[in-house]
Amino acid sequence: MNSETHDGYTRRTVLVTGAAGVAAAALPLAVNAEPVAPGAAMQEPRTEVRLRINGEPHALAIDPRVTLLDLLREQLHLTGSKKGCDHGQCGACTVLVNGRRINSCLTLAVLHEGDEVTTIEGLGAPKKLHPMQAAFVSHDGYQCGYCTPGQICSAVGMLGEMRGGMPSHVTRDLVAPVVFSDEEMRERMSGNICRCAGYPNIIAAIREVAGTAGART
Ligand code: FES
Ligand code: FES
Quick one: pLDDT band at residue 177, thresholds 50, 70, 90? Predict the structure, then answer.
């Protein structure tokens, strides 16, 4: 097929000429770009934030783009909170902020100035377990354990919500039983996925702490 144009140009000469023109037009931009000194580090933006984590005050200079989960895990080495999906679908990263459960992968740390954050490490210790931690142990509420910190924090937050939004440290002292059906409990805990499917044992553990063990209302 003859690809010559009526001006005597071939398809090839048009493309080559065009490419050269584009390169020439781009050249001044490349020449005008600021040279980066060899070995120069990129400056990360920093923002100060003060918050309490597991009862301890922290004043931190952080990248404003960092999530609360990454702050906890990567900078403070509180690795109990897990990163499962990193976009709000599994609940493995659940922590308590001012007594309310949240997915820490979905929130920026800088938004929590002055907040009280409680992670699984702050709920209890091996020799002094939170009642919810003890119930998960006694009911075998875990298998691989990856979802467990999030399940426990979420369960504590859920009972707090049902008792009128009590802060997490108050729910350590068991108060009035919370009465609700297994169906409601499953719905309220549906943001926490267990890939080992330990749900019956998880529900039994939560029900014990709710003070209505064995009840099916
Ligand atoms: S890691 Fe946050 S919801 Fe999955
Ligand atoms: S215990 Fe394995 S994911 Fe829940």
Answer: confident
Q: What is the pLDDT of residue 119?
A: 98
Determine the residue of 93, 136, 194, 199 to mutate for testing ligand 2's pocket, defined as the one with the most ligand atoms within 8 A of the Cβ atom.
Answer: 194
Query: For residue 3, what pLDDT band results from cuts at 50, 70 and 90?
Result: very low
Residue 14 lies in a domain: no
Q: Is it the case that residue 2 has pLDDT exceeding 80?
A: no
CB of 193 sitting under 6 A from ligand 2: no
Instruction: Tell me if 155 is assigned to some domain.
Output: yes
**Does pLDDT of 135 surpass 50?**
yes
In a domain, 199, yes or no: yes
CA of 141, nearest ligand number = 2
Secondary structure class of 182 (helix, strand, coil): helix
Buried/exposed code over 126-161 (b: 16+ C-beta within 10 A; e: otherwise): eeebbbbbebbeebebbeeebbbbbbbbbbbbbbbe
Beta bridge partners of 117: 53, 97
Can you tell me which atom of ligand 2 is nearest the CA of 151?
Answer: 4
With beta carbons less than 8 A apart as the criterion, state whether 113 and 52 touch: no
Residue 7 domain flag = no
More reliable by pLDDT, 165 or 192: 192
Task: Say yes or no: CB of residue 91 within 6 Å of ligand 1.
Answer: yes
Question: Is the CB of 146 inside a 6 Å radius of any atom of ligand 2?
Answer: yes
- For 56, the domain range is 47-210
Q: What is the pLDDT of residue 116?
A: 98
Tell how far the Cα of 136 is from the centroid of ligand 2, in angstroms. Answer: 12
Using a 6 Å cutoff on CB, does residue 148 contact ligand 1?
Answer: no
CATH number, residue 162: 3.10.20.30
- Number of domains observed in the structure of the chain: 1
